[in-house]
Design a protein that fits this description.
This protein is of the alpha/beta class and 423 residues long. Helices cover 21% and strands 32% of the residues. The chain is built from 8 helices and 26 strands. The strands form 6 sheets. Strands 8-5-7-6-10-9 form a 6-stranded mixed β-sheet, with no helix packed on it. It has a 5-stranded mixed beta barrel with strand order 22-24-23-25-26. Strands 2-13 form a two-stranded antiparallel ribbon. A hairpin with a 3-residue loop joins strand 19 and strand 20. The longest helix is centred in the C-terminal third of the chain and has 19 residues, at 318-336. The relative contact order is 0.12. It binds adenosine monophosphate and magnesium ion. Residues 197, 199, 201-202, 214, 216-218, 263-265, 267, 270, 315-318 line the site of adenosine monophosphate.
Length: 423
C-alpha cells in the first residue's frame, strides 16, 4: 500500500495551502486503493453493484439467424432488381417454432419476428410490401440481399467478453446477463463507510434548539449521498469538539470501516487540535483547496486494532460538504469499490446571466438547466453562500467554472454537470 507521502511525491507542484482541484484528485487517486472481496449474487440482487470479473459469453446471442420482421423469408437469388417476382408459400415459421424443411427455388416461407430463418433463405420481405393470392406471394423489385435478417451472435458473440469487470450493473446489464442464460454474477463486496458530524453547536433532529445551536443537517445529506453510491453505512452520530471523543469516534471508524467521512472541524481555527489527535492515529494531511465552496479538507489513513480506514475530513458548511463529497470523495469511493468508470460528463450550456469568477480556483455554482429557445441554458439558484443548502436543493446541475476561467458574460457558454441521470 502506498503511503500518503508517496502519493503526494508523485504530484508535481504540490502546495497544500493552495491546491488546485485536479491536483487534489491526483493525490487521492494514487493514494486510495480498491478493496478486495467478491461475492456471488443472483442477477437481480446485483443491480447497482460493481462487476468483479469479466462475463464471457457462453453462447451466441441470438443463437440462430432469425427474422427481424413479420413477412416472408426468401432466397435473394430468386428476386429480380427491376421487376416483381411471384413465389409460392410453402409454410410458416414462428418465434420458437421453426419451419422444418428446406426452401427450394421459387419458394418462400411466411415468418414471424424472431423466427429462425428457414433453410436456404437469406432475407425477409416485410408483409406490407407483398401482394398475396392464395399461396402465391408477389414480391416487388428493390429488395436487398440479407435484409431484415438478424445474424447469429450479432448482439453477443460466443467466447467474447459481454461485460467487463469494473462496471456498475444497470438494468440493461441484468437483461444482458439473463440473455446469456446466466443466473449468478460475481460482484465486489459493498464498501463500508462510517461517517459523523463534529461541532459543539450541533443538535440532532428531535430536540429543541437553544440560542446559537443548529440542527445537524450534514448527517442527512451525507447519508443520502453514501446511500446513493451503494455503500454500507455506519452512522456514528454527532461528536463534540473534544479531542478524546473525536479520537474514540475515529478509532471506532478505523476498526470497522473501509473509509470514514466527517464534516466540520477542519477549518483553520479548528484544525489544530484535530491535527494533533489525528497524527496519533495515522497519516493525515490538511489542505486548502483552490475551490469554492469548500476550501479546507483533510485526507489520510487512520488505524485502530490492526485495521485501517481512509479518512476524508470535509468542511462543515452544508453546501461545502456536498460539493467536496461529489468532487473528491465520490470518485475515491467508486475507485475503492472497483469501478473503472467514474468520470461524469460536462455539457455546454448558455449562461442566462453574467457570472463573477476569479481565475485561480474552481467554482461549483448551483444552477438550473432548462431548454430555452431550443437550446440548453442555465441560471443560478439565487444566493450561492456555502451555508445556503437551498441552493443545492433547488439546483439540477453544477455550473463548473474551471481553475483558469475568469468572469462570464451573459450569453457565453459554460460547463454544467447534471445532478440526475436516467438509470
Ligand atoms: P466548521 O467547518 O466546523 O467550522 O463549520 C462551518 C460551518 O458549518 C459552521 O457554521 C457550522 O455551524 C456549520 N456546520 C458544521 N457542521 C454542520 C452540520 N453537521 N450541520 C449543519 N451545519 C453544520
Ligand atoms: Mg465545527
Amino acid at each position: 500500500m502506498k503511503s500518503l507521502q508517496e502519493a503526494i511525491s508523485c504530484v508535481s507542484g504540490y502546495d497544500p495551502d493552495a491546491l488546485p482541484v485536479a491536483k487534489a484528485n491526483e493525490v487521492i487517486r494514487s493514494f486510495v486503493k480498491p478493496v478486495s472481496g467478491v461475492e456471488r449474487l443472483p442477477v437481480r440482487a446485483a443491480l447497482g453493484r460493481v462487476l468483479a470479473r469479466d462475463i464471457v459469453s457462453p453462447i451466441d446471442v441470438p443463437s440462430h439467424d432469425n427474422s427481424a420482421m413479420d413477412g416472408y423469408a426468401v432466397r435473394s437469388d430468386d428476386l429480380r432488381s427491376a421487376e416483381p417476382v411471384t413465389l409460392i408459400e410453402i409454410g410458416t415459421a414462428y418465434a420458437g417454432k421453426a419451419f422444418p424443411g428446406e426452401v427450394g427455388r421459387g419458394e418462400c416461407v411466411r415468418v414471424m419476428t424472431g423466427a429462425v430463418m428457414p433453410g436456404n433463405t437469406d432475407a425477409v420481405v416485410i408483409q406490407e410490401a407483398v401482394t398475396t393470392e392464395g399461396r402465391r406471394v408477389t414480391v416487388p423489385p428493390g429488395q436487398e440481399r440479407g435484409q431484415n435478417r438478424r445474424l447469429a451472435g450479432e448482439d453477443l458473440a460466443k467466447g467474447k467478453p459481454a461485460l467487463r469487470a469494473g462496471r456498475l450493473l444497470r438494468p440493461a446489464d441484468l437483461g444482458l446477463v439473463a440473455s446469456l442464460g446466466i443466473g449468478e454474477v460475481s460482484v465486489r463486496r459493498k464498501l463500508k463507510v462510517a461517517f459523523f458530524s463534529t461541532g459543539d453547536e450541533l443538535v440532532s433532529v428531535g430536540r429543541k434548539l437553544k440560542a446559537g445551536e443548529v440542527y445537524d443537517s450534514n448527517r442527512y445529506t451525507l447519508w443520502g449521498m453514501l446511500e446513493r453510491l451503494g455503500c454500507e453505512i455506519v452512522d456514528l452520530g454527532v461528536v463534540r469538539d473534544d479531542p478524546k471523543k473525536l479520537e474514540a469516534a475515529f478509532r471506532k471508524a478505523a476498526a470497522g470501516a473501509d473509509a470514514v467521512v466527517t464534516s466540520g472541524g477542519v477549518s483553520v481555527g479548528e484544525a489544530d487540535f484535530t491535527k494533533q489527535m489525528m497524527a496519533k492515529l495515522g497519516e493525515v494531511v490538511f489542505w486548502k483547496i483552490a475551490m469554492r465552496p469548500g476550501r479546507p479538507m483533510a485526507l489520510g489513513r487512520i488505524r485502530a486494532r490492526g485495521r485501517s480506514a481512509y479518512l476524508f475530513g470535509l468542511p462543515g458548511n452544508p453546501v461545502a460538504v456536498m460539493v467536496t463529497f461529489y468532487h473528491f470523495v465520490r470518485g475515491a469511493l467508486l475507485h475503492m469499490m472497483g469501478r473503472s468508470d467514474t468520470e461524469l460528463p460536462l455539457l455546454r450550456a448558455r449562461s442566462e446571466t453574467a457570472l463573477r469568477k476569479k481565475p485561480g480556483r474552481t467554482e461549483y455554482q448551483r444552477g438550473i438547466l432548462r431548454l430555452k429557445d431550443g437550446e440548453w441554458s442555465v441560471h443560478l439558484t439565487g444566493a450561492q453562500g456555502s451555508g445556503i443548502l437551498r441552493s443545492m436543493s433547488e439546483a439540477n446541475c453544477f455550473v463548473v467554472l474551471g481553475h483558469e476561467q475568469g468572469s462570464i458574460a451573459a450569453g457565453e457558454y459554460v460547463d454544467v454537470m447534471l445532478m440526475d441521470g436516467l438509470v
